[in-house]
Amino acid sequence: MRDQEDTPENLLGTEYGTLPDGWEILELGDVATLQRGKDLPVSDRQLGSYPVVGSNGVVGYHVEAVSSGPGVLVGRSGSVGKVTWIAEDYWPLNTALWVRDFHDNDPRYVFYLLSYLQLSRFAAGVSVPTLNRNLIHPVKVAVPPLTEQEAIAHVLSTLQETIETTDQVIEATRELMRSLTNHLLTYGPVPMDEADQVPLRETEIGPVPEHWQAVCLEEVATLQRGKDLPQSKRQPGRHPVVGSNGVVGSHSRSVADGPGVLVGRSGSVGKVTWVEKSYWPLNTALWVKDFHGNDAAFVYRLLGTIDFSKYTAGVSVPTLNRNLVHPVVVGVPPLQEQQEIAHILGAMDEKIAAEESLKSSLDDLFKTLLHNMMTGKLTANDIDLSEVEGVA
């Protein structure tokens, strides 16, 4: 086996080394012959069932197809090197290269092979980088027998489907989080199907539960501009340095005790950040100097519902003005309800974080398998597919 890392860069123009029995070293053009797509202006498209595919994927539909599916395309200009799989007959645009001939190789395997090769590195041109098929056809690739290609494609497809399912779970949970946040900050910690049973009273910001207060934000969370701390003056330490976009470093000293809540003042205006421990708020952010006895985690959620873009000043560099924000009226429940609301939403955050961690692990596993299976370090027989299917 090879001592150096088998990255696509190292494999180009070099020997692959020891490969499994039956594998061959071939030129890419002998595995998948690429062809430039055909122009089809939007004005000439007629609504139909055939996908129109460009460098970034499907961009529309047409009544005619140029190529039979399944198909594999590579971005030629625009999203150079992006690889797209298409199951049905399609029309490839001239911003893409499409596989005209698979030479009896498995199309799905070819899709993963082209994805692995990172063909964007071959783009030529300065102002408009373009992928030239004549430059990539001679690239040497390791190719297994057809049965192994199909097995490899099955393993990678199974893992990819698991990743896509995890993505869907994350998005569905985030959407539930948005709905739940709106519900809890409108009706309090009651089931959604019991919202109509909550006694409400009219206020200047609309109806709120009868026992809630409608008060100025400054009475709930007094905001203070942060303090400048140039990179040159930061010293290694355990205290987070927090700006408008979140934690940007650490320092040996802190300005504010944790837990803390900050709002982007300039830069990422209105972005709300939660900090667990004592920290240094930069002057690109406003930090909550006084919670006035309110639950800090609840205030974090409350601030996250405010459209701070309404309270900015400046044209070229919009800046959040705390003097405009402080008078904003908000609905505030008693402390116990604040804590219940914060607990419910905190549990949702933990679920999202767990799914995102799983997604990250799956992505890493996919990259590892893609690399090892495209270079012959692993074959499909080396993979326990039940473990891949059961990762999630």
CATH fold call of the domain at 8-143: Adenine-n6-DNA-methyltransferase TaqI, Chain A, domain 2
CATH class of the domain at 8-143: Alpha Beta
Number of strands: 22
Distance N to C terminus: 32 Å
User: pLDDT average, as an integer?
Assistant: 92
Strand content bin:
15-25%
Describe the strand arrangement of the main beta sheet, using strand numbers. 2-8-5-6
Shape: elongated
- Structural class assignment: alpha+beta
Question: Can you count the helices?
Answer: 9
Secondary structure elements and pairings:
Elements: H1 8-11, E1 24-27, H2 28-31, E2 33-36, E3 50-54, E4 57-62, E5 71-75, E6 83-86, E7 91-92, E8 96-101, H3 107-116, H4 133-136, E9 140-143, H5 146-187, E10 200-203, E11 206-209, E12 213-216, E13 222-225, E14 239-243, E15 246-251, E16 260-264, E17 272-275, E18 280-281, E19 285-290, H6 296-303, E20 312-313, E21 319-320, H7 322-325, E22 329-332, H8 335-374, H9 385-389
Helix pairs in contact: 5-8, 6-8
Overall description:
The chain is an alpha+beta fold. Among the domains are: 8-143, DNA methylase specificity domains (Adenine-n6-DNA-methyltransferase TaqI, Chain A, domain 2, Alpha-Beta Complex); 213-332, DNA methylase specificity domains (Adenine-n6-DNA-methyltransferase TaqI, Chain A, domain 2, Alpha-Beta Complex). The protein has nine helices and 22 strands. It has helices spanning 8-11, 28-31, 107-116, 133-136, 146-187, 296-303, 322-325, 335-374, 385-389, and strands at residues 24-27, 33-36, 50-54, 57-62, 71-75, 83-86, 91-92, 96-101, 140-143, 200-203, 206-209, 213-216, 222-225, 239-243, 246-251, 260-264, 272-275, 280-281, 285-290, 312-313, 319-320, 329-332. The chain has a four-stranded antiparallel beta sheet with strand order 2-8-5-6. Strands 13-19-16-17 form a four-stranded antiparallel beta sheet, with helices on one face. Strand 10 (200-203) and strand 11 form a beta hairpin. Helix 5 runs antiparallel to helix 8 and helix 6 packs across helix 8 (335-374). The longest helix has 42 residues, at 146-187. The radius of gyration is 28 Å and the shape is elongated. The two termini are 32 Å apart.
